[in-house]
Automatic annotation (TrEMBL):
Family label: Belongs to the GerABKC lipoprotein family.
Domain Spore germination GerAC-like C-terminal: 221-352
Protein name from the UniProt record: Ger(X)C family spore germination protein
Places the protein is found: Membrane
PROSITE patterns: PROKAR_LIPOPROTEIN
Lineage, broadest ranks: Bacteria, Bacillati, Bacillota, Bacilli, Bacillales
Keyword match Glycoprotein: no
Key word Signal present: yes
GO cellular component, one term: membrane
InterPro entries: GerAC_N (IPR057336), Spore_GerAC-like (IPR008844), Spore_GerAC-like_C (IPR046953), Spore_GerAC_C_sf (IPR038501)
Keyword terms, alphabetized: Germination, Lipoprotein, Membrane, Palmitate, Signal
Domain of life: Bacteria
Ranges where the Spore germination protein N-terminal domain occurs: 23-197
Membrane topology: Lipid-anchor
Length: 387
């Protein structure tokens, strides 16, 4: 009998030490922040937060939804970023969890104030990571946060949270993660090129009404030496050929000023070379290699003509973007950083160890060599030999 009582007492004592789930929180009892927005108005830091009903989203797997997912957007202001974030708790109703944040959006005014002032408190917080997508925008952040994808799908499927799929099909402006942004921002001579989110109001319709959708409409160039400068996507037409992450991009070749052949360039590779002239100033040259595929032929062009026109067109686009950057004092191709990497002594001398970045950049005519791989189901006209 004593053994039984002793065993019961020991078992009761050990049960007290067991971990339990008495403090567990159900998913519907927690508010999950999925995106953060930053603005700066009237000397105050403004913090926006997007929340999505994950319980509602989880029911949509395996079929289409009949109703759009519920999305909330809220904001508060304060003397610091953390103060504004803390004020959001007053109306949150339930515990707020920041570990689900996948996107960070800055307004133009916030970028002019300085990214570091907004990010310092954020990246120190233990619930946050460095894997969020990061954007700038000229649109109101609360409107950006309310944009939904097609077919009443989860808002997590929009460009705001998942930009990679769209970029693989149209490699124009590369999406950027926070960890990459922080590393670039700290590099000497580097300019941070931040994708810009816009809203297309008139592209899509549903039931005869406009259905606005998110899009990447340009880029903010951010550096330590000057305020953020916005470029529309048409000014960045040559940047895709200099980006190592470009998967595929389309080009329209023209003949006599009219559209002739549409081609796709797959995985172009670029290289920047730096030479120091007799005057001690650097000269930059760009080389691009890639494979091209014919996707549409409006006017007949033979193979050599297609390749030659494609080389000339891409070289012209690279020059166009370089010139647009110089006009606004921005080194879009980060030639300053290439000089720092490849000719450090010259960089240190010419820039006073990075205090005065080079402004009178010079680039030779880009060297572009493309190889035609496939012309589609129809053969193209071959040039006739002349005797």
């Amino acid at each position: 009998m004593r053994r039984v009582v002793y065993a019961l007492l020991v078992g009761l004592g050990l049960s007290i030490l067991l971990a339990g789930c008495w403090d567990i929180k159900a998913i519907q009892d927690t508010n999950y922040i999925t995106a953060i927005g930053y603005d700066y108005k009237d000397g105050q830091y403004v913090v926006y937060a997007q929340m999505i009903d994950f319980a509602n989203v989880s029911k949509r797997e395996g079929g289409k939804a009949g109703e759009p997912a519920s999305v909330w957007s809220g904001h508060e202001s304060g003397g610091t970023v953390i103060e504004a974030m803390n004020r959001l708790y007053k109306t949150s109703q339930q515990r707020v969890f920041w570990g689900q944040v996948s996107s960070i959006v800055f307004t133009e005014e916030a970028l002019k104030k300085g990214m570091s002032e907004f990010l310092d408190g954020l990246i120190r917080f233990r619930e946050m990571r460095y894997t969020q997508w990061i954007y700038g925008t000229k649109e109101p952040i609360d409107r950006v946060f309310m944009m939904l994808p097609f077919f009443n799908q989860s808002p997590i499927g929009s460009i705001l949270h998942q930009p990679e799929d769209t970029y693989r099909q149209r490699s124009y402006i590369r999406p950027l993660r926070l960890q990459k942004a922080v590393s670039i921002f700290r590099e000497p001579g580097a300019s941070l090129l931040l994708p810009s989110l816009g809203i297309a109001d008139n592209t899509w319709k549903i039931k005869g009404r406009n259905d606005p959708k998110l899009m990447v409409d340009g880029m903010f160039a951010v550096s330590k030496d000057q305020q953020a400068v916005w470029f529309p996507d048409e000014d960045l037409i040559g940047l895709r050929w200099m980006d190592p992450g470009t998967k595929r991009s389309d080009v329209m070749l023209r003949s006599s000023g009219k559209p002739a052949v549409s081609i796709s360039v797959d995985k172009p590779k670029s290289k920047i070379k730096v030479d120091i002239g007799n005057n001690g100033k650097p000269n930059f040259s760009v080389r691009v290699r890639g494979k091209i595929y014919v996707s549409e032929m409006i006017q007949q062009m033979d193979e050599p003509e297609i390749v030659r026109t494609a080389n000339e067109t891409i070289a012209s686009e690279i020059e166009h973007t370089f010139a647009r950057g110089l006009e606004r004092g921005i080194d879009l191709y980060m030639f300053n950083h290439s000089l720092y990497r490849k000719r450090f002594q010259s960089w240190s001398k010419l820039t006073d160890s990075g205090k005065t970045p080079l402004s009178d950049l010079q680039m030779r005519l880009p060297e572009v060599k493309l190889k035609l791989i496939h012309t589609g189901m129809y053969k193209i006209k071959q040039p006739q030999n002349e005797y």
